[in-house]
Design brief:
4 helices; mainly beta; 49 strands
Length: 800
C-alpha cells in the first residue's frame, strides 16, 4: 500500500463518502471523474487487473440532486499528502480538494473526514458552482457548505458582480452573510488609481442564491465617487429572477401632472403569481394609488389592474380606472368537449381619463373601452359561444366619435366540416344578438337580430393551379323595439352568393443582378355574383366598408359585419410574381397588381352612401423586397387611373445591419384625409467617428464607452407638425447605463403630454430614475435592450 506520509510530486487520491480511498482500493467507477495521467501517478495498476472503463453520462447537470450529492466521492491532491484512513488528511503545497461542483485550492489544507470539515490557509480559492471566493483563511464543512472565510474576495457567477469583505459566514450552500462588504459589477482596469464607477458599501450583505436576492444593511451606493443613495436596508437581485421588495423609486417631469415620484413594491407571491403596487405622488394632482396582480395556472390565467386618485386637483374630482382580464378552460369528461370562460372588463371614471393618464396602460387609454364576458364550448366540428359586450365611450367635444352598440346577449353557433362527400367543404354559422344603446344612435331603434350564414365549396388544386367554386347563403331577421322609418316592426332578407376563385402558378429559373432565383408568375381570377336584395332602409348595427387592399379585394362582400350584403357582378383580376431562393425557399421579392371589373352597379350601400357605378375599380399595386436580410421594403398603392394619382399609399422600409442598428421609415397617404411620415431608429453614435464597437451578440451591448441615439417621430404633413415624438440618448459605460428621453404624445386635437425621463441603470444591481426603458420599448420598432440576460450562465463556463 502506498505510504500516505511520503511525498509525491503530484499525488492524487479519491475519498468516498465513507472512507478515504487509498491507492490500492480505488474504485474503478470513480475513474471517470479524474484524468488517466493522475490515476497512473496515484496508483500503479497491477497487470492482471482489468482497465477501468468510463461510464457515459446523459448530460452535465447544472444542479446536483441531494441524493446524488451524498454519494459523490471527494478527490484530493497536492505536493505532499499525509493522514490516517477514515480520519483526517493533510495536504501541503498546491493542495486541492474536489467534490461535485465544489473545488477548493490552498497552500495548506486539512480535511477531517468524520466531520467533513476542511481548514485551508494561504492563497485559498474556492469555486462553488461557478461562484468564486478567495482569501487567506477558510474553515468550511464541504457538503453542508457551512463555515467562514476571513478577508475574502468574491465573484458571483450569475451577474459577474464582485467585491471584498472582512469576513463571510456561510450558512449553507445557498446562503451567506458578508461582513463589511463591497459590491459592484464594474470590472477592474489597469492602473493603481482605478476606482469603480459605482460601488455599494454595506455593513452586511446577505446573499441568497436560491432566491437570487441580496439584502444589504447599512448600505450606501456611490456613483463616480459621490454617495447618491444612502439606505438603512435594501434588497437587490443577483440575476434577472423575480424578487419581493421595494423597487427603486422612479421620478419624472410631466407638463400635465408635474413632478411624479413612484415608489413601487413588488410581491413575488409564487412562481406563477405576483403583484405590484405603485403609489405615485403627482405635484399638480395628488397621490395616485395603483396596483397590478397576475396569475398563471394550468387551466386559467389573468391580469388585474386598478388605480384610484382621490380628489384630483387638476379636474377637482376623484379619478379611477380598472382593467380585468381572465381566461379559463374547464375540463369536462371525455367526449363532451371543452368549455372556455373569458372576461375582459375595462372602465374609467370620466371622459378625460385617456388624455390625463396616457401612460397608465393601453387597455385604459383608448377612447373605446370594452366590457366583455363569454362562455365558449367546442367539440369536433361544432362550437358555441355566449357573449355579452358593453362599451364605455370617452368623448372629446372637439373630435366626437360614434359609440358602438352593446351586445347582450350574443349567441353564436358554428359547424364546419372539410372533406365531406368527395372533397366538399361546408360551414354554417347562426347568430342571435340583442343590440342596444342608451337613447338612439343615428335614429336607429334597438333591436334583436338573427342571421344564418352557410357556405359550400369544392376546392380542386394541383402544384400548378387551383379552382374553388363556392356557394353562400346569408339570411337574417330583425325585431325592432320601435318601428323603423318605413313603419315596419320587423324585417327579413335572404341573399345568395356564388363565386369562383381560380389561379395558375408558373415557375422558371432566373438570374437577377448575378443571383439565381426561382421566379413564379401567378395569375388569378375571382368572379362573384350576388343578386340585389334591397337592404338600404334597414338599420346598420355592425357593418362597415372594407379597406381596399390585397386582403379584401379577393372577398365576396364589400362590407364587414352582417347588416349589408353587397350586390355584386364583378371579376377581380390579379397577377403576382415572386423571387424565391432556390435553396431555402426564402422570398427575396414579391410584386403584385390587381383590379376589379364591375359589370353592374352596386346598389346596396351604407346609410348615407351612394351606389357604385364605376366599371373599373382603382388599381392596387403592391411590392415587398427583402433582397438581403438587412433591408426590407413594403409598399401598397391604390391608384385611380381617371384622376391619374394615388388615392391611398403606404410605403415602409427597414434597414437593420446588425444588433442595435435599426432604422425604420414609413409614409402613409390617405387622399383628402391624412398624410404622415413615421421614422424610428436605434443607432450607435460612435459609428459617426469610425468606432464600430464589438459584436458581442444581442443583450450584451457593443462594448463600454458607447453612445446610442434612439427615437421615433410621427409627422403630419397635412398639419405641418409633429404628432408624437420620442427622442433620447443612451450611454453604455460597461457596468452602468444612462438614458435621457424626451417624450411628446398627442392627447387630443389641441393638447399633448410632454415628459422628460432620466434613468441610471447599475448593471446587476438596480435602476434609478424614471422608466425611460419602458417608453423606448413601447414606441421604437425593434428596439433592443443594451443589456438583457439571454440565457442563465452555466457553472461550467467558470469551471476550474
Amino acid at each position: 500500500m502506498h505510504d500516505l506520509r511520503s511525498k509525491a510530486s503530484r499525488a492524487r487520491f479519491a475519498l468516498s463518502p465513507v472512507a478515504l480511498v487509498v491507492a490500492g482500493l480505488l474504485q474503478p467507477n470513480l475513474v471517470q471523474a479524474q484524468p488517466a495521467a493522475d490515476v497512473a501517478q496515484a496508483r500503479p495498476q497491477p497487470a492482471a487487473e482489468p482497465s477501468p472503463s468510463l461510464k457515459p453520462s446523459p448530460a452535465l447537470r447544472e444542479d446536483i440532486p441531494a441524493p446524488t450529492r451524498d454519494q459523490l466521492p471527494t478527490f484530493v491532491r497536492g505536493d505532499s499528502i499525509r493522514g490516517r484512513t477514515d480520519l483526517e488528511t493533510e495536504i501541503e503545497g498546491n493542495a486541492e480538494l474536489r467534490r461535485g461542483d465544489t473545488i477548493l485550492r490552498a497552500n495548506k489544507l486539512q480535511y477531517d473526514q468524520a466531520t467533513d470539515r476542511a481548514r485551508a490557509s494561504g492563497d485559498v480559492r474556492i469555486n462553488k458552482a461557478g461562484t468564486v471566493f478567495e482569501g487567506p483563511l477558510l474553515d468550511l464543512k464541504i457538503d453542508a457548505f457551512e463555515g467562514f472565510f476571513n478577508e475574502p474576495r468574491y465573484r458571483f457567477l450569475q451577474n459577474n458582480a464582485y467585491g471584498e469583505a472582512d469576513r463571510i459566514d456561510f450558512i449553507d450552500d445557498k446562503r451567506a452573510i458578508i461582513r463589511n462588504a463591497t459590491y459592484t459589477t464594474c470590472q477592474r482596469k489597469p492602473g493603481p488609481s482605478w476606482l469603480p464607477d459605482w460601488i455599494l458599501r454595506a455593513s452586511s450583505i446577505r446573499i441568497d442564491q436560491e432566491t437570487e436576492v441580496g439584502h444589504a444593511e447599512g448600505a450606501v451606493l456611490s456613483f463616480m465617487g459621490l454617495p447618491i443613495l444612502p439606505v438603512p436596508a435594501m434588497s437587490f437581485p443577483l440575476s434577472d429572477a423575480r424578487k419581493s421588495g421595494v423597487l427603486p423609486p422612479t421620478f419624472g417631469l410631466d407638463n400635465v401632472s408635474g413632478v411624479e415620484l413612484t415608489v413601487p413594491y413588488y410581491w413575488n407571491i409564487a412562481p406563477n403569481r405576483d403583484a405590484t403596487f405603485y403609489p405615485t405622488l403627482m405635484s399638480k394632482r395628488g397621490v395616485d394609488l395603483a396596483g397590478e396582480a397576475r396569475y398563471l395556472e394550468p387551466l386559467y390565467s389573468g391580469t388585474w389592474r386598478a388605480n384610484v386618485l382621490p380628489n384630483d386637483r387638476l379636474r377637482d374630482r376623484d379619478r379611477w380606472g380598472y382593467s380585468v382580464r381572465h381566461d379559463q378552460y374547464l375540463q369536462l369528461p371525455a367526449g363532451i368537449g371543452g368549455v372556455g370562460l373569458n372576461l375582459n372588463v375595462n372602465r374609467v371614471s370620466d371622459d378625460n381619463y385617456w388624455r390625463d393618464f396616457s401612460r397608465s396602460g393601453v387597455s385604459l387609454t383608448q377612447r373605446l373601452l370594452a366590457g366583455e364576458g363569454s362562455v365558449s364550448w367546442g367539440r369536433g366540428d361544432f362550437s358555441f359561444v355566449a357573449r355579452a359586450t358593453k362599451w364605455q365611450t370617452l368623448q372629446d367635444l372637439s373630435a366626437p366619435i360614434v359609440p358602438p352598440y352593446d351586445r347582450a346577449p350574443q349567441l353564436i353557433g358554428r359547424y364546419s366540416k372539410s372533406n365531406l362527400w368527395g372533397g366538399l367543404e361546408t360551414s354554417i354559422e347562426t347568430d342571435h344578438t340583442r343590440f342596444s344603446v342608451d337613447g338612439t344612435l343615428n335614429g336607429q331603434p334597438n333591436a334583436r337580430r338573427t342571421f344564418t350564414y352557410a357556405q359550400v365549396s369544392r376546392p380542386w388544386q394541383a402544384p400548378g393551379w387551383f379552382v374553388t367554386p363556392k356557394v353562400q347563403l346569408h339570411a337574417r331577421h330583425y325585431d325592432f323595439d320601435t318601428p323603423i322609418a318605413t313603419g315596419a316592426g320587423s324585417a327579413s332578407v335572404t341573399v345568395p352568393t356564388a363565386s369562383l376563385d381560380s389561379g395558375l402558378v408558373f415557375e422558371r429559373d432566373a438570374s437577377f443582378f448575378g443571383r439565381a432565383f426561382r421566379q413564379t408568375l401567378e395569375p388569378r381570377a375571382f368572379y362573384v355574383y350576388t343578386p340585389f336584395r334591397d337592404q338600404n332602409a334597414l338599420p346598420n348595427y355592425d357593418s362597415a366598408a372594407h379597406d381596399f387592399n390585397f386582403a379584401t379585394i379577393w372577398t365576396e362582400n364589400a362590407f364587414g359585419g352582417h347588416d349589408r350584403i353587397a350586390d355584386n357582378n364583378l371579376l377581380t383580376l390579379g397577377l403576382t410574381t415572386r423571387l424565391l431562393d432556390p435553396d431555402t425557399g426564402a422570398e427575396a421579392a414579391r410584386f403584385g397588381v390587381a383590379q376589379r371589373v364591375r359589370f353592374k352597379d352596386q346598389r346596396v350601400t351604407l346609410p348615407g352612401g351612394a351606389p357604385v357605378s364605376e366599371r373599373l375599380s382603382d388599381i392596387l399595386f403592391g411590392a415587398s423586397v427583402n433582397w438581403v436580410p438587412q433591408w426590407t421594403v413594403d409598399s401598397t398603392i391604390q391608384y385611380n387611373p381617371k384622376e391619374g394619382r394615388s388615392i391611398r399609399s403606404t410605403i415602409g422600409g427597414r434597414y437593420s445591419p446588425g444588433n442595435y442598428r435599426v432604422v425604420s421609415a414609413a409614409y402613409r397617404l390617405q387622399r383628402g384625409s391624412s398624410e404622415q411620415l413615421d421614422l424610428g431608429w436605434q443607432w450607435p453614435l460612435n459609428d459617426l467617428w469610425g468606432d464600430r464597437g464589438q459584436n458581442l451578440g444581442p443583450g450584451m451591448g457593443e462594448g463600454e464607452g458607447r453612445w446610442y441615439s434612439v427615437g421615433r417621430l410621427n409627422y403630419s404633413m397635412k398639419d405641418r407638425r409633429v404628432v408624437d415624438a420620442v427622442v433620447g440618448l443612451e450611454y453604455d459605460a460597461g457596468c452602468w447605463l444612462g438614458r435621457i428621453v424626451f417624450e411628446r404624445l398627442q392627447a387630443g386635437t389641441q393638447q399633448s403630454n410632454k415628459r422628460v425621463l432620466f434613468q441610471l441603470e447599475f448593471l446587476g444591481f438596480t435602476r434609478l430614475g424614471s422608466n425611460a426603458l419602458q417608453s423606448l420599448k413601447d414606441n421604437i420598432p425593434r428596439y433592443q435592450f443594451l443589456r438583457e440576460q439571454v440565457r442563465t450562465p452555466s457553472r461550467f463556463s467558470n469551471y476550474d
